[in-house]
Design a protein that fits this description.
169 residues, globular, 8-stranded antiparallel beta barrel, mainly beta, disordered N terminus, 8 strands, 14% helix
């Protein structure tokens, strides 16, 4: 029996790898695609999107996006952080700041959008130094819309996403 169990396990792991490889090749919507760029690194993020209750010019209060706060993970290990700017810092000392240049809705109504960000600045040296584009894909959660009760209050909404760092050439 151990042989059959090990064979079945190997098959499941291999088929999962094939599915992951196919998913990575799935074309992204044009608004966030980065044709001709090579992937430098893909990291998973777990964290929160932080919102602030703000008064509008009409006197009504609504939730407005303030900042992300997330841990960046590779193979289940913490390798960096993501925070306002937006900034991504890797544990090797490299960091980038991005500027949104494209957006498409998330898959579900409560998912934050998928984004394409152009790298606007770099710090340090390491794996992120050569990145020119960051894509936020596979988002889950994080969205908060609508009215709120008291201006100046905050709410954090859990989210997850994958960040794909790419470079030209």
């Amino acid at each position: 029996m151990p042989f059959f169990r090990n064979t079945a396990l190997a098959f499941l792991l291999l088929s999962g790898s094939l599915v992951s490889a196919r998913a990575a090749e799935t074309p992204l919507p044009d608004a966030i695609a980065a044709p001709g760029e090579a992937i430098v690194l893909t990291l998973h993020a777990e964290g929160a999107q932080v919102y602030e209750c703000r008064s509008g010019s009409d006197g009504k209060t609504n939730w407005g996006f303030r900042e992300p706060i997330a841990t960046l993970l590779a193979d289940g290990k913490t390798v960096g952080r993501h925070y306002a700017g937006p900034n991504w810092e890797h544990s090797d000392g490299s960091a980038v700041t991005g500027k949104v240049v494209g957006s498409v809705p998330g898959a579900a109504p409560n998912d934050i959008p998928w984004l394409k960000l152009e790298v606007a600045s770099r710090r340090g040296s390491g794996i992120l130094t050569g990145a020119t584009t960051v894509q936020r894909i596979n988002t889950s959660g994080g969205k908060l819309d609508g009215p709120c009760d008291e201006a100046g209050t905050y709410r954090s909404v859990p989210y997850a996403a994958d960040y794909v760092f790419q470079r030209k050439g």
